[in-house]
Amino acid sequence: MNPKSGDGKVGRFGLVEKAGALGCRVILLNTSAQQDLAAIARRAVADGADLLGVAGGDGTQALVAAAAAQHGLPFLVIPAGTRNHFALDLGLDRADPSRAGGADGQR
């Protein structure tokens, strides 16, 4: 999860806690340092991930989606960026990224 995306949507919507409650392993990006998101995603796959998801903007989404596609894994879009064009194309609620996982029975 990118804590700075969308002016802090990850924190405002409690996304780390909500994902953790669902049993997800959460990696919170350190935005003060350059990080290789593709390498982080590959490491998650090597550690046994059966799904990749990311809370962030379109750029973050694209990098992790590519890794999911490369490994044949499902990909969860959590629209936590500013514009979230990819999430818009999917019909996701861009105003409330906590609804993206469907845990509340909503899409």
Structure description:
The chain has 107 residues and is α+β, with helices and mostly antiparallel strands. It contains five helices and two strands; from the N terminus they run αααβαβα. The chain has helices spanning 9-12, 15-21, 37-46, 58-70, 85-90; strands spanning 52-56, 75-79. The protein has a two-stranded parallel sheet. Helix 3 (37-46) packs parallel to helix 4 (58-70).
Strand content: 5-15%
Number of DSSP strands?
2
Compute the gyration radius: what is it? 13 Å
Largest sheet: 2 strands, parallel
Q: Give the averaged pLDDT, no decimals.
A: 90
- Taken from the alpha-carbon principal axes, the silhouette is globular
Number of helices: 5
* Element-level helix/strand string: HHHEHEH
Contiguous low-pLDDT stretches (5 residues minimum) are 103-107
- Helix fraction by DSSP (H/I, runs of at least 4): 25-40%
Task: Please give a quick description of this structure.
The chain has helices spanning 9-12, 15-21, 37-46, 58-70, 85-90; strands at residues 52-56, 75-79. It is α+β, with helices and mostly antiparallel strands.
Task: Supply the key terms.
two-stranded parallel sheet; 107 residues; 5 helices; alpha+beta
Write the SSE topology.
Blueprint lengths: L8 H4 L2 H7 L15 H10 L5 E5 L1 H13 L4 E5 L5 H6 L17
Parallel strand pairs: 1-2
